């Protein structure tokens, strides 16, 4: 995109040229290194104007452009930062940091230093995501803050004023890269036409900045590398209209995630949660509930039912709010050991459990707030707890880590419902253990995405009675398993059917 500027010291006009996508600009704002975003008014056609006592001559200018498809363009291509979850916690980077758009999505921790006049005492640090570019200004008389090789952050005003008063103008800071903490999964905004598409990956956790992206259509069968158009906007000329799309994402720390069947028939915007398995030991606490025979542990919040019939037995745990993740952690497997309590910890004892239930928070003032957020806590079956410590210990400090789930046989599907809707309880899932997405296909239908009702209970309102059923299961780290003809055409509600396959451990 290019901007043609005209005017005089009292007013100026800007014409946005070479605008891709919708092409027609419906709103434009301008910003200097020392100002907020200043709305411009349409003069005529695509000529936008700002006048009055707004000094812009001699300053570096940034533009915010909105087209008729409601896309607001920063240099990274993210669009509306509030809708996409970035909000005010953002920054435009100087040339030295922006790296031609390759740093888009990276997260930084920043603190004000060495300026007692302006640095707010004990302000601590802020965390921001790189979402825009601070252009250089080569006029030697004005503000070269964003000129190479200078490292500079042009923060949103709410972020700047957490570090220093607005009137400070410019402050010295220290910064460092930090992992990006995002809620939910990677999101993909898809635009284009039948001849080419662009994909913008948004809400990327970890390193944050995507360095390579590939797409695969359900009919093409091959991964197609996409090329960076600008910022985090990636493009391919492959014809993928009418196909479900999968993405292969690589970030700057060389970590890769494969997201299968993210988009069904080119849906414009959709989210797929991906829970990577951390193998690092973390601190938590543990208690127990029920008796040695597993009383009170059955029929839990994951929807599994009789844990003995379903193969989980006594090796189970109810998770606190922080770990349960609204039921998305159901089926995950953990290794747990008692630590730092020589009075109660049994020597060298380690257990392995599956998440099958929820330990609800207790908001009544009392000492037993073990399952309240943000505390990480495991409420174990009594049989598992007593492998780590004596039951009279009550509560013990533990360390835990996620581990692959080892299961016998294939993934199992328990069918319930009536002729008008069907629910499926998915269990005995190996590998990551967590199920992120389930689709069902009848012998006379296509693939139908199912909706998570709670825990591992999934539902569809499509009538499938009398059809043989196949399932497509997406696991927590993006792996997908297609299980054909799991249930025969004469399947019955209340019965369980086993697929001919499972995820690898």
Class inferred from helices and paired strands: mainly beta
Residue share in β-strands: 35-45%
Q: Compute the CA-based radius of gyration.
A: 27 Å
Report the span from N to C terminus.
49 Å
Report mean pLDDT, rounded to a whole number: 85
| Discrete helix count | 4
Oligomer: single chain
Reported for the largest beta sheet, the result is: 8 strands, antiparallel
The largest sheet has its strands arranged as 20-19-16-17-18-15-14-21
Characterization of this structure:
It is a single chain. The chain has 505 residues and is mainly beta. It is 4% helix and 42% strand. It has four helices and 36 strands. The chain has an eight-stranded antiparallel β-sheet, with no helix packed on it. A hairpin with a 2-residue loop joins strand 17 (224-230) and strand 18. The model is unreliable at 264-276 (pLDDT under 50).
């Amino acid at each position: 995109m290019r901007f043609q500027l005209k005017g005089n010291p009292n007013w100026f006009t800007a014409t946005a040229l070479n605008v891709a996508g919708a092409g027609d600009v419906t709103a434009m704002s301008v910003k200097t290194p020392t100002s907020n975003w200043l709305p411009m008014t349409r003069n005529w056609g695509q000529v936008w104007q700002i006048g009055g006592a707004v000094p812009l001559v001699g300053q570096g200018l940034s533009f915010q452009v909105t087209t008729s498809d409601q896309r607001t363009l920063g240099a990274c291509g993210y669009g509306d930062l509030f809708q996409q979850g970035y909000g005010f916690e953002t920054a435009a980077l100087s040339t030295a940091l922006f790296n031609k758009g390759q740093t888009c999505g990276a997260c930084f921790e920043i603190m004000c230093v060495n300026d007692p006049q302006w640095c707010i005492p004990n302000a601590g640090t802020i965390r921001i995501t790189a979402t825009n570019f601070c252009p250089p200004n080569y006029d030697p008389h004005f503000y070269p803050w964003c000129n190479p090789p200078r490292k500079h952050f042009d923060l949103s005003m709410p972020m700047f004023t957490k570090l220093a008063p607005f009137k400070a103008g410019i402050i010295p800071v220290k910064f460092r890269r930090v992992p990006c903490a995002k809620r939910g999964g990677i999101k993909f905004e898809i635009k284009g036409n039948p001849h080419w598409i662009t994909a913008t990956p948004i809400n990327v956790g970890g390193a944050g900045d995507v360095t390579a992206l590939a797409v695969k259509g359900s009919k093409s069968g091959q991964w197609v590398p996409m090329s960076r158009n600008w910022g985090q906007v990636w493009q391919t000329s492959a014809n993928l209209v009418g196909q479900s799309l999968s993405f292969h994402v690589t970030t700057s720390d060389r970590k890769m995630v494969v997201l299968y069947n993210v988009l069904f028939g080119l849906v414009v915007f959709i989210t797929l949660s991906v829970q990577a398995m951390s193998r690092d030991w973390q601190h938590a606490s543990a208690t127990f509930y029920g008796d040695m025979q597993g009383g009170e542990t059955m029929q839990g919040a994951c929807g599994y039912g009789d844990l003995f019939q379903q193969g989980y037995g006594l090796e189970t745990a109810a998770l606190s709010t922080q770990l349960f993740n609204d039921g998305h952690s159901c089926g995950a497997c953990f290794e747990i050991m008692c630590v730092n309590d020589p009075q109660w910890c049994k020597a060298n004892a380690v257990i392995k459990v599956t998440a099958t239930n929820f330990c609800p928070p207790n908001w009544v003032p009392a000492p037993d707030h073990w399952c309240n957020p943000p505390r990480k806590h495991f409420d174990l079956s009594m049989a598992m707890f007593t492998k780590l410590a004596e039951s009279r210990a009550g509560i013990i400090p533990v360390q835990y880590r996620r581990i692959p789930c080892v299961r016998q046989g294939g993934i199992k599907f328990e069918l319930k419902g009536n002729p008008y809707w069907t629910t499926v309880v998915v269990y005995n899932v190996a590998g990551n253990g967590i199920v992120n997405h389930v689709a069902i296909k009848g012998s006379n239908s296509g693939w139908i995405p199912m909706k998570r009702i709670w825990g591992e209970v999934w539902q569809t309102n499509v009538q499938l009675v009398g059809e043989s059923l196949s399932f497509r299961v997406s696991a927590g780290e993006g792996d997908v398993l297609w299980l054909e003809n799991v249930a025969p055409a004469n399947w019955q509600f209340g019965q369980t059917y086993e697929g001919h396959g499972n995820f690898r451990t």
